[in-house]
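Troubleshooting log. The previous structure file for this entry was overwritten by mistake, so regenerating from the original sequence record. Sequence copied from the archived sheet and checked twice against the printout by T.R.
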Amino acid sequence: MTNVAFVAMAAGLIIGLGALGATIGIGIMGGRYMEGAARQPELMDQLQTKMFLLAGLIDAAFLIGVGIAMMFAFANPFQG
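Regenerated output below.
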């Protein structure tokens, strides 16, 4: 296999595993939010704000990984 093939496989793994981790993390967080809101409904607004903030941070980490994978896919430093 060539270096280009390894870079393509690495980019696929970065994107795939990043998406898997982000979806699992957001799913667990959403479930915990529902549990917390059911136990203490008066704190629902505060919990919702924190949940959306954390969802954005989790998604941002995944998108940074996608950006790095695209950099290696289209501006491959190992090609030359």
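The CA atoms of residues 25 and 43 lie 22 Å apart. Archived copy saved in two places this time.
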